[in-house]
Structures are given as structure tokens and as C-alpha cells.
Description:
This protein is an alpha/beta fold. The protein has 16 helices and 14 strands. The chain has helices spanning 37-55, 71-80, 84-101, 117-129, 158-164, 205-215, 229-244, 275-278, 284-292, 304-330, 337-345, 347-358, 363-380, 387-403, 419-434, 438-450; strands at 2-5, 10-13, 21-26, 59-64, 133-136, 139-142, 179-184, 199-201, 219-225, 249-255, 258-260, 300-302, 453-458, 461-466. The structure holds adenosine monophosphate (AMP) and zinc ion. Zinc ion binds at residues 27, 207, 232, 236. Residues 27, 29-30, 38-39, 41-42, 224-225, 227-228, 255, 257-258, 265 line the site of adenosine monophosphate (AMP).
Amino acid sequence: MKVYNTLTNQKEEFIPLEPGKVKMYVCGPTVYDYIHIGNARPYVIFDTIRRYMEYKGYEVNYVQNFTDVDDKIIKKAIAEGVDSKVISERYIAEAKKDAEGLNVEPATKNPKVTEEMDGIISMIQTLIDKGYAYEINGSVFYDTKAFHDYGKLSGKNIDDLEAGARIAVDENKKNPMDFVLWKPKKDGEPYWESPWGQGRPGWHIECSVMAKKYLGDTIDIHAGGEDLIFPHHENEIAQSEAANGKPFAKYWLHNGFINVDNKKMSKSLGNFFTLREIVEHIPYDVVRFFILSGHYRSPINFSKELMEAAGAGLDRIKNAYKSLVFMESKAQGTMTDEEKKLNEDADKFRVQFEAAMDDDFNTADAVTAIFEIAKFSNINVNENSSKEFVTAIREKFLKLCTILGIKPQEETKDKQISPDEVESLIAERTAAKKSKDFARADAIREELSAKGVVIEDTRAGVRWSYK
Ligand code: AMP
Ligand code: ZN
């Protein structure tokens, strides 16, 4: 399995620190609002990478933080006249709902800044003790000049950065590139006690602390959107490696951005959408499928047309799968010799899928393998196929979908009637038709329709689906 490592700027063979285990840290959202469509990308991409690693037999310890101490949260809390915690807890709950909608597996742990203050203070103290940080007037800054590897992730040179930097906003800093680890309390803001007075942490320190606590000094994968490479991830490396005296992360993975109508999404351009706004028109599973249809490192463009195309593609997959489920319910018997050969031949889609995913998680090509197994089943599975054969193909098909977090089967949990109830009404209708009680048969069709089910009489029996 090859992964593109931002640290080395090349694809590398993935070799975990410990055989069979993967320690993965993904930077999570700042919880001051609903997550936006751009935030959905790292959610879906790194969940898919995790699922693929689990499929390959790794035990994945997946940590994703919630940044619940931040200027924007405080601003909103003041505007609403509530405590910051009310805002952050509200949007943590909403982010979790969106993640569930996108079929993202829950993280092993979702640490929050407000619950990690002891670890944060202790790492800052270690950095001061080791000569990598200094305190001035209740603020603590990281001394970037003291860390000789500063710039190794982003490929930036500290002297160039300094030359390009505007005059330091904060006059307490020794150098413009130094960044804040602890800031003193301001009126009306939440604060914590510390050896440097009451205050709160800067943004970068939380991830160093949480990764160390939940995964260890050195982790396998650190991930996030490409905007985080500099300064956030560069600063995380500076903090963790200086404090722990060990390499921080072996592989750094970054997703490209989602643009809207070919422009960077921004509130001022009016092309900024929360995921919640989007899913009023486009189902969550189409959003997930859309994200998977491009390579995670390339920028992708979000537009109505592209979404519709993704929806149509996903429908093709669902329809092929639905047909298999229907045929499986009617079919009987074991595989013929010809079916055995076809079944073996169908393994090529898994091989194609794995080759794509082993090449830096090329989900676009992995999706192609799913389209191909859908096409194969449309051509090769029919009403005369044996049950054993239909089941075998359906299971292969489902396996590939599941690794990408695609559910090809109808969701039933929001339906007004369960599949079992539908089946039993259909059986009753068939019996009514046989005994020429057409009024009853029609009444059942009406009842099903009212409950969101359409039925179709075919030579092989009654087919049904949710509308
Ligand atoms: P934030 O809440 O802005 O810190 O973002 C949370 C995650 O979403 C980070 O991994 C960001 O890099 C990522 N992200 C933010 N905007 C976009 C975007 N437009 N496209 C893709 N990823 C994004
Ligand atoms: Zn982070």
C-alpha cells in the first residue's frame, strides 16, 4: 500500500510503526457553526482510508479532536448571550449528526480542548523547560528559531518566512514567526489557571497534546486539509518533536480543497454552504459519493451539475444492487459450471479495486471498479441464475461498496413501512388477485403507495422499491 507523504513529497510504502496497528490523528473542526461542505471532505476521505486499512486487517486507532476553545466560538456565545460551552456542545452534536449522515464511522476518541487543559499546560511547561518557549507578560510563545527543523513539512525556510512576514502583530514576540502557546485572559472570555496566570491555549498546542495522550509520542498518520500544512501542522511538529524528543508522525496526508463553482468558498463571495443546507436538496450519500469520485489530493469543484451527475452514478449502482437483491429472493439452487467460472472472473473487480486503493487511495478508480461490477451483474445475473451465484456476486458487490462507506441498499430506518411488512402485503395482494378479489388487490397497491412503496408486476414476480 503506497501513500503520498507530504513530509517527503513522494509516495511511500506504508509500513506501520507496530505490525497490524495504525495510529491515526485527524484534525477536526472548530465548533462554532454547522460544518460546511469543505469540512465534509476530510471527514469522508480519512474515514475511507481508515475503512480500507481495517479491510486490510489493521486495527486502526482513530483520533479526531473538536476545537472547542476559539475566538469564533466566544464571539457567537457573546452574541447569543450564552456560555461558550453552550455553543461548542451544540455544534459538536450537530457535527456528529452530519458525520453519521455521511456514514463516517465514529472515531475511537474525540478529545476536546476544554477537557485536556492539564496536558496542555504540562506540554507548554516542558517546552519552556527545554528552551523552546518563553513567557512574556502572561503570554507564552514558541521560539521557532530554537527548533532547527522548522519548515520541514511545508518546505518553507524560516528566514524567507521572516523576511516576508509583516511586522509582528504582537510586540511581545522575539521573532515574527513565533507562535502563541498560551494567551492571557481577556474580559468576558473563558479562562483556565496556569503557571503563567489565567488564560487559554493557542490553537496548535491541542493537537500535539491529544495525539501524545491518546496515540503516543510517535504516530503513523497525521491528516487534515491542505490548508493546515502551514502553519498548523508545521507548528505541531515543532511542539511535539521538541517536547518529546522523538519524530512526531511518520506519514502526513492532506486532502485538497472543495471549491464552489470553481471559486474558493467564502462567506463574502456568497458561495459558502453548510452541509446542512446542501442536504436539504442532495442526500448525504450522494455527497459522500461525490467526494469519493475524485482523488483526495486534487481540488474538486462543487456544483449543482456535478452533484446531479454523482446522484445519477450512485443510482446506477443502487439499481444494479437492488436487482441482485430481488433476484436472490426468488432464485434457487447451486452454481452451474459456467456460473462458477463467471464467479471467479468477478474477482477481477476486487483486484482492480485494491490496486486503485493501494495506490494512494485512488477512490476515483475504486469507484470505477464498482461501476464495472454493477455492469457485470446487469449482464451476467438474471432470472435463471442460481441462488448461490446471485448471492456470491451480490456479496462481492456489497463488500466493495462497504469499504468506501457506500450503502447500495435502500435505507429502511426512515421508512413508514418495513420490508417485511411490504413483503407480507404483496403476498396478500398476490393471493387476492388469484382469488379474483381485485378490489382488495387494488386497495393493497394504494396502501403501499401511500406508505411510499411502488410495486411493479414482472414475469418473475412483483418487484417493489421505496419511492
Ligand atoms: P476548520 O474547522 O476550518 O479548522 O476545518 C476542519 C477541516 O476541514 C480541516 O481539516 C480543514 O483543512 C478542512 N477544510 C476546510 N475547508 C475546506 C475545503 N474548502 N475543502 C476541503 N477541506 C477543507
Ligand atoms: Zn490539528
